[in-house]
Amino acid sequence: MSGRRIGGAQGTLRFSFDGHAMLAREGDTLAAALLANGVMLVGRSFKYHRSRGIMAAGVEEPNALVTVGEGGRTEPNTRATDVYVYDGLVARSQNAWPSLAVDLGAVNDLFARFLGAGFYYKTFFGPPSRWMVYERFIRRAAGLGKAPTLADPDRYEHRSAFCDLLVVGGGAAGVAAARAALVAGERVMLVEQDRGPHLLSRESGNPESHTQRSVPWAPAFAGARTENLRVLTRTTASGLWDHGFATLAERLVEPGQPPAIGEPVQRLWHVRARRIVLATGAIERPLTFAGNDRPGVMLSQAVRSYIERFDVLPGQRVVIATNNDDAYATADAVRAAGGEMVAILDSRESCPAGGDAASFTDAHVVQAHGGARGLTAVVASIGGRTQRFEADLLAVSGGFTPAVHLHSQAGGTLDWREDLQAFVPGASPQAVTSVGAAAGDIPPIAATTAELSDPKHSFVDFQNDVTAADVDLAWTEGYRSVEHLKRYTTLGMATDQGKTSNMAALARLAQTGGVTIPQAGLTTFRPPYTPLTLAALAGADGGGHAAPARRLALWDCHQRLAPIWQPLGLWHRPRAYPVAGETLHAAAMREARAVRTTAGIVDVSTLAKFAVKGPDAAALLELVCATGIAKLAVGRGRYTFMLREDGMVLDDGTVWRLGETEYLLTSSTGGADRMEAHLSYVHRVLAPQLRVSVVMQQEHFAGIALAGPQAARLLRVVTGITPPAHMGLARGVIAGVAVLVLAASYSGERAFEIYAAAHDAGPVWDALEAAVRGAGGCPYGLEALEFLRIEKGHVVVGAEADGRTTPGDLGLGRMLRKAGGFVGAQGLMRPALHAADRLQLVGLTSDSPIPEGAMLVAAEGGAAQGHVTSAGPRVLEAGSVAIGLLASGAARLGDTLVATSPTRGLRATVTVVAPVFHDPEGARYRD
Fold first, then answer.
1. Which helix (H) or strand (E) holds 489?
2. How many Å is the Cα radius of gyration of the chain?
3. What percent of the chain has pLDDT over 90?
4. Is 624:610 a contact under the CB 8 Å cutoff?
5. Torsion on CA atoms 896, 901, 906, 910, rounded to nearest 10
């Protein structure tokens, strides 16, 4: 093939391909520019590394995948037909080493007969150790382009829109539908994946031509209310979903192109439309014959597009192979551009009216000859006789396939049209209508078949190197369902999702099986229609925006102490406050010992807090909480827990009665959103008649826990009030700030949770910190808090309450309200939840560190009988303690087990004990 620019002038845009500097015209796609510069070889195939050239002119291109851009803007696997050249564009070929012209991977083609369908399944098996060897080679060969290693510097955004009519496709049919809706006063969105401001229409005067010729937008909408029209060009409808919902991917700059300062590069639209018109056109099919993948073999309409849209003639001596009338327009275009029409090979028994001097009937391509430099000859069977034609371009047209992808995604059915040998849109459960070529307004074809001279080199899926022989082999080996065929051969699983290959493969499968194409079946069309970048899906939710680092109200107070920060739920909380070069463990032990011996303060602001108010507040809490609430006196609180409807523990916390009809409910930090949803569900669904209001107050109040033997004395000093008894509450003032004091302990020591308005809490922390340090104590973080709560045997949601445990499993069964009536009560009645062999909470002790997460076994190599949920050192004594879940744990106190973690190489011999190691009587946290 020897492409050239019609008219001679190449243009002024500078770009490079594989380091070679070239010129392009404004409006050229990269594919058009490469053809104009005489570039025939643009890539190598995935499996056999065969030479590949440009086949199509649109998003259906299976061969010309290149890497575009540099640095963080590198974008691999970009279709050269779907990127417009801009000044400075840098493009590179893929899947070739050391170069595109000399690719050592092409040796695979010499062994193609051994690398057929299912090669991997039949070769890479054996013991696991052998797979470790295979994996290195497989990973090295996998993929096409190389993913960028630098961070993407660009910005992506999402937008939402609503319209009466969404039109997908800027061809004549789409524009006509949009104009009619505008005249009727409707709000219209028109999206076109090509570049504007032009629409793409059929060639005037030729109703059967589907070539893409640019004409201005404006005249098409003359007389319509264009203020109700929104046009998005370079925008692809990537998916249609339920209820008229569509996702649109808009390119604001080309791949690899730097945007204007502060502007996004892509925008993902979320659109709700009252009705949708699909004017998505049809995709031309290739023909199947030996060597049909060589550079120089192109789709007929693609050749016409390059001539008429881009002034590029892809070859000088042209052969056309067709089974329909449309290709004759390509012959006219070639002649008009100065090319030589060598032959038109028409598989039908007769030519269209008028015919063509160069046409042959009953003619089929047998083989295409050539190599990396392009096509050299075409061998055809004409009426049973073999004839050879010298040519550098073969334009093929195997008919057209309506682009039914979006119709199918919207739940629409497909009907078979025998005259088209294609599936067309059928009924749709949504207000989705297909028009134009997408609805089947395409040229009919002759359903002719020809014997293949070399099925192993007759390709049906060009990107994944699937041949007709692979389809035959899959059928022979029993993979006869089209879905099985797809997965066994990887047919249609490449980045083009089988746009040019599916119908050819179905025809071969049907022919092999002796059935019709509808009987052979059809694979599922799934979004996206064309590949989407992950950054476009994420939009602005990248980097710190994906999971924002939420700062505590007391962040400044902590930051002065240089803590180690730890992510927890949606928050970052201090894990420890090292001093003088301390390690995390040393700092946590110092802090925990301060709490055990004097006093300490910890930030508990992130606990979920819910204000429950109203005449029926107690009734709602009786439904939500599995413990008794109604008899709780004003000014008192109690520990409680909440269950799922299946009886498993959902969360735990405390409930406090602040007034006759006013309660405060707290629960875990990580479960705040889950608990808010649960409260809403219980109120709105299970008990909508209750007169009660529930307000989430997690961020309204900052919380500081003061704990230790000196806690009560220090509270009296800073507030001047008498400290409330355990599980009592009081109000006071610290540093001029009103506070609520709740006497509750998580550490096992006398403790108080002190709440203040979040924006006023800084002085409260400062006053408490000064008092604690004056007594010889210090602030403590999550690590010390964990050591303290493990010693006391307190459970946490996620570790011990892991979604599989009931109150009985956690030793909380005696706290259940005997009368029932709470969410989960019915679920707890199932006998299996009371089986003696269930995993139950136990304590574990050892002289050596106990590996957290370790399995509990009777002996090394034995079956797991449970696992360690939380572990830590004793705070004031030697040794280690842990809590865990053990089968029949309550009946196994005194047993000796092994806690083992083979993947980490850790083990410890442990003794099963009751899960409370510090002050079992509870004397230290009471008055």
1. helix 482-489
2. 36
3. 77
4. no
5. -10
Amino acid, res. 34: L
CA 395 – CA 337 distance, rounded (Å) = 15
- SS3 letters for 761-795? HHHHHHHHHHHHHHCCCEECCHHHHHHHHHHHCCC
Assess contact for 28 and 107: CB atoms under 8 A: no
How far apart, in Å, are the Cα atoms of 693 and each of 61, 659, 690, 846? 59, 14, 9, 49
SS3 at position 418: coil
Listed as own residue / partner, the contacts of 681-688 with beta carbons closer than 8 Å and 24 or more positions apart are 682/620, 682/623, 682/624, 682/823, 683/620, 686/623, 686/823, 687/619, 687/620, 687/623
pLDDT surpasses 60 at 150: yes
What are the tokens at 720? 């001047």
Helical (H) or strand (E) element with 434: strand 432-434
What is the SS3 string spanning 726-763? Answer: CCEEEEEEECCEEEEEECCCCCCCCEEEEEEEHHHHHH
C-alpha–C-alpha distance, residues 306 and 400, integer Å: 19
Helix/strand/coil percentages in the chain, nearest 5:
25, 30, 45
Q: How far apart are the first and last CA of the chain?
A: 95
For tokens 């064309």, name the residue.
Answer: 530
In sequence order, which residues have a C-beta less than 8 Å from that of residue 687 and are 6 or more positions away?
619, 620, 623
Containing 516, the helix (H) or strand (E) segment is: none
With a threshold of 0.70, does the pTM exceed it? yes
Beta bridge partners of 900: 855, 907
**Residue holding tokens 């053809």?**
35
Cα angle vertex 36, ends 35, 37, to 5°? 90
SS3 394: strand
Burial class from Cβ neighbours inside 10 Å (0-12, 13-18, 19+) for residue 57 reads buried
Find out whether 681 and 642 touch, Cβ atoms under 8 Å: no
* Overall residue count recorded for the chain in this entry: 927
301 CA to centre of own chain: 35
As to burial, measured by CB atoms within 10 angstroms (0-12 exposed, 13-18 middle, 19+ buried), residue 411 is middle
Helix/strand/coil for 374 = strand
Pairing of strands 855-857, 866-873: antiparallel
Average of per-residue pLDDT across 424-444 = 95
| Residue 354: count of CB within 10 angstroms of its CB | 6
Provide the 3-class DSSP secondary structure of residue 153: coil
The residue type of 833 is L
In single-letter form, the type of residue at position 9 comes to A
Q: Give residue 807's identity as a one-letter amino acid code.
A: P
Model confidence pLDDT, tens digit, residues 4-45: 888 777 889 999 999 999 999 999 999 999 999 999 999 999
Q: List pLDDT tens digits, range 597-622.
A: 999 999 999 999 999 999 999 999 99
What would the DSSP string read from start to end of 444-492? ---------S-GGGBEEETTTTEEHHHHHHHHHTT--SHHHHHHHH-TT
- Cβ of 141: how many Cβ atoms within 10 Å? 13
Residue 794's pLDDT band (cuts 50, 70, 90): very high
DSSP 84: B
Model confidence at 209, pLDDT cuts 50, 70, 90, reads very low
Distance of CA 178 to the CA centre of its chain: 33
The SS3 assignment for 921 reads coil
- Measured CA to CA, the distance from residue 637 to residue 729 in angstroms comes to 8
| Residue of 693, 688, 697 whose CA lies nearest to 615 | 693
Residue 210: pLDDT band with limits 50, 70, 90: very low
How far apart are the C-alpha atoms of 689 and 412, rounded to whole Å?
43
The answer, yes or no, to whether residue 206 has pLDDT greater than 50, is no
Cα separation, 330 vs 142, whole angstroms: 38
Q: Tell me if 738 sits within 8 A of 584, measured CB to CB.
A: no
pLDDT at 511: 87
Structure tokens at 747: 């550490």
Residue 606, SS3 per DSSP: coil
